[in-house]
Specification:
The chain is α+β, with helices and mostly antiparallel strands. Helices cover 64% and strands 8% of the residues. It is built from 22 helices and eleven strands. The longest helix is centred in the middle third of the chain and has 49 residues.
Length: 724
Amino acid sequence: MTITDNREHTGEPPLQKGVFVRVGGFAHRRKWLALVLWVAVLIGVWGIATAAGDAYKNDTSLPGTEAQAAADVLKEHGAERAGDTIDIVLHDKGGLDGVRERVDPMLKEVAGLPKVGDVQSLYDNPTAIAEDGTIGYATVQLEVASDDMPLEDTERIQDAAQKIEGDGLQVELGGEAVRLLAEGGTGVGEMVGLVAAMVILVLMFGTFIAAGLPIMIALFAVGSTVGIIVLASHIFTIASWTPPIMFLVGLGVGIDYALLIFARFRAELVRGENPERATITAMDAAGRSVFFAGCTVILALLGLTALGLGSIQGMSLSVALTVLMTMLASLTLLPALLGIFGNRFARQFTKRAEKRKAAGKSADGEGWRKLATAVQKRPLAALLGAAVLFGALAFPALGIRLGFNDAGNDPSDSTSRQAYDLLSDGFGPGFNGPLLVVTEGGDGGAEEAAAAAATTLGQTEGVAATAPPMPTPDGEAATVLVFPESSPQDEETQKLVGTLRDDVLPGVTADNGAEYLVGGSTAASEDYAGKLGDRMPLFMIIVVGLSIVLLMAVFRSVLIPLKAAILNLLSIGAALGAMKLVFQDGMLGFEGGPIEAYVPVMIFAIVFGLSMDYEIFLISRMHEEWVTSKDGDPSRAVREGLAHTGSVITAAGSIMIVIFAAFVLSPQRLLQQTGFAFAVAIFVDAVIIRCVVVPAAMELMGRRAWWMPAPLAKILPKVELEKH
């Protein structure tokens, strides 16, 4: 193997006349123009978005699945759902008959509220009261889907129902509209994350103005992008849970990118450069890293479109746009702000550096230099220790069970959770998630075929009860509600869906020629998880493959991209394993249940991209030290690379960790799981992988780290991240 030493022995590096220098220099010189333009964009976008309002749509269609086929049959025969329902669940130990004089007026009042189509009283439906007579439910038929139900109208229903509580009568409400009402109070996690990020930045830079710049960049970028997505929701399918994910990722990435450039700017000021030269140098070096790091995140997110699922496609494009805007803000707005505050920063940072020197404190980066030296002495031990740790964390991920949360995962003191528990106590665990068997055709007609299926299903192990068949308006199809003995999220319910489809219903079809399809929300959840699992390998190949090619072009290396991909997969595995232990197995006091089907693919795409950010930040500085060093020592390049970037990477990682971890405070389980997994992944990546594993691996690879076969080098475009 031939190692080509491509170092250039230079003195003071000249400023390159590349796009990053030109953009950074223009923004620095025309600082007020750049700032005004960004303010105009933010105000203009939000002004239009506020006037237009949002039109988020949760696309739950699953082409090619049985649950979707069942929904299509119902739509074809005029039984498509017009609106959702809210259950008013009542419990009185003395019996519900004794409180009828209080319940009937309440139900009449609810029937007259906005967006309420009809109310079916529990006293008019014998099956709506449990056998012991203490638990029952009234069904409120809404005129709209839960996602379209105004929160204030849901609150009116809740207030009207619960005002009759007292004297032994308990009233709780269930249904997706009620759960959305509880989720409406978000924002705590975002504020906690911002405050924690501000504290870390103040400790790092010693001044509130300097600490505020990265946060300002993130808020400008995320704010503008969310406004754009509000407008785009009128044209494209964008789920209602997309904006919080955009804020989660955009805030972390925005601070991350701005911090990298700002840290290089500070280093140049301490070296004695004037603010303009320091800004341009920072843009010429760190700005390049930010650009290509952002490209890797966007590339990974766009890979989600390969899954072909509407809500995930909308989310991936929205978050990719968020990353793009944060990247643009870091490259244009940040130089303008550095131009405004540059002279002040020059005085503050140089004075602080002089005080450190006078106090006899070690130079910045000395601790990281010592850490790299220690790791390089025993690189195999470092790698083996990390491998054991990663394996222990990632192993539980093999047992992840995908699904969707329901009211059984809500906080125990929420009305939706208490309604769920009361219905389970009164009517059985499977009452909250019945399966819907759709019948079409048959020798004696759909309704007769549905009755035959109901008889067989009622005798099936795992089925608690079945409801009488209900024909569609045109009589050409019919439905049967099947109540499992287990809860909707129980693994036994998942097995029951497969048993009905593969073993039970095919036998009924053989007898009468009817077509049976198992649908409903519980079956759709299983189908969605299965569809994601089937398409995951293709998605992983696309994301990992394209990222490796990009890194090969950037670093002119074969081993570094392969190492990066493997380490990124390990951090993702550790995050998924930890999330499984906490949210599926119920550690740390969280309610156990399946992992949200969306979450693993989001974690893979976003964490893979963010991990590549740190790889580019660290390796690009090591490469800069390698090509500009005079002694040709790859070990020294590794030490100096970590010495110059270790504090920035750990600070950026710490900020991301606190921002992501703060989302565990969110009432939405999707955001809890996502924030927790992101925090674990960034901790593993920024603290263990970049500061320990990468120096060990680079030490073992030595000069071979920068090797690339000549034929491959000719094919790939040459991309330079550092000036030399």
